[in-house]
Amino acid sequence: MEKFTLVTGGTGYIGSHTVVALMEAGYQVVIVDNLENSSDKVLSRIESITGTLPVFIRADLRETTTITKIFEEYPISSVLHFAGLKAVGESVENPAKYYDNNIGSTLSLINAMKSSIVSTLVFSSSATVYSPSKEPPFDEEATRGPTNPYGMSKYFIEQILTDVALADENWSIGLLRYFNPIGAHPTGLIGEMPTGIPNNLVPYIMQVAVEKLEKLYIFGDDYETPDGSCIRDYVHVVDLARGHLAALRFLEGVNGTHVWNLGTGKGSSVLELVKAVEEAIGKPIPREVVGRREGDIPVVFADVEKASNELTWRAENTLTRMCLDHWNWQRQNPDGYQ
Ligand code: NAD
Ligand code: UFG
């Protein structure tokens, strides 16, 4: 019987791109998502790209009985766990919601996996677990010290999963720390669907580009960086998707917990990013420099040697390509999947 990979949060931004990568590599996929921050319209888009409609079950991961039943119904051999809430600001306002959803979902999933004897898991962590006191680049050993409840939820989950694998040597767990995912599938059929006014830089710029928002506010140009604006490690979502496949293959042969940064290893400033978008779309982005955003770290970029050495994975897409693909998606779908 064919084995399945369960993808939690598989209708979301990074999950949907990874589902495409898995299906193109011959994996059978079951998606579970409660659609809190995604649309089931993504499923037919995935079918358009891959030629196959993935199995989809609408459920909240915290409903352990429902999740256990999914494991009983499908011969699942591995899990990619994307499901979670990710808005940093909202997590500061409502920390209990974030701890309940992100940690509650993960505990429920672990329990369902244990009762079904499935023990291969890849978890979506974040560069936000690193302490801002460290100078970049961040390698996987860098001191951790998240500064908001969202980041703390990732930090706690990493610890929980590490303890699970310590207690039972059958577990193979991958912790993937993403830097700043942007871009979209080159077909423009799937991409990020932010609800309301976007918090993140690229989704915001794209809405300025389609004239849904008037102008970009650049949060500070007085940082100690070459052009004064903050530096981040932007990574193409399709490269991230490939990184998940590489991690899954690695875990098929080993036990224990393994952690990898997924980034490009290169930092780009806000102003450089704006320039790259302008080149991609062929028109200027109206902008205004305003004060710094509270909590922003001046420079963040990854040390990517571990993923390169152990997973033979490297991000391949340039910043221009990321901007072009993101724009292509935004232009074709100005209202997301609506
Ligand atoms: P997303 O919001 O597009 O996808 C997450 C999905 O999880 C959504 O479809 C949502 O409906 C679903 N979900 C949330 N809670 C659920 C629950 N209790 N039960 C079932 N489904 C639930 O986000 P994304 O950008 O694709 O991020 C995927 C993962 O990667 C998240 O865990 C996020 O924290 C992590 N991550 C994202 C970024 C980023 O910048 N996008 C950076 C680092 C880490
Ligand atoms: N920025 C602006 N204007 C905007 C939005 C952002 O100037 O309208 C600037 C920010 O100040 C920052 C840079 O653009 O300097 C990038 O900001 P994002 O909000 O796009 O990304 P962050 O690096 O702040 O945060 C992201 C995710 C977090 C994750 C973190 C580390 O949003 O969830 O990366 O992985 F935790």
Overview of this structure, please?
With 338 residues, the chain is an alpha/beta fold. The protein has a domain at 4-182 and 235-263: Rossmann fold. 40% of the residues lie in helices and 18% in strands. Strands 3-2-1-4-5-6-11 form a 7-stranded parallel β-sheet, with helices on both faces. Helix 1 links the parallel strand 1 (4-8) and strand 2. Helix 7 (201-209) crosses helix 11. The chain is globular. The two termini are 37 Å apart. Bound molecules: nicotinamide-adenine-dinucleotide and uridine-5'-diphosphate-4-deoxy-4-fluoro-alpha-D-galactose. Uridine-5'-diphosphate-4-deoxy-4-fluoro-alpha-D-galactose binds next to helix 7 and strand 8.
Brief descriptors of the model:
338 residues, Rossmann fold, seven-stranded parallel sheet, two-stranded parallel sheet, 18% strand, binds nicotinamide-adenine-dinucleotide, binds uridine-5'-diphosphate-4-deoxy-4-fluoro-alpha-D-galactose
Oligomer: single chain
Q: Provide the low-confidence segments as ranges.
A: none
* Backbone shape: globular
CATH superfamily of the domain at 4-182 and 235-263: NAD(P)-binding Rossmann-like Domain
- How far apart the termini lie comes to 37 Å
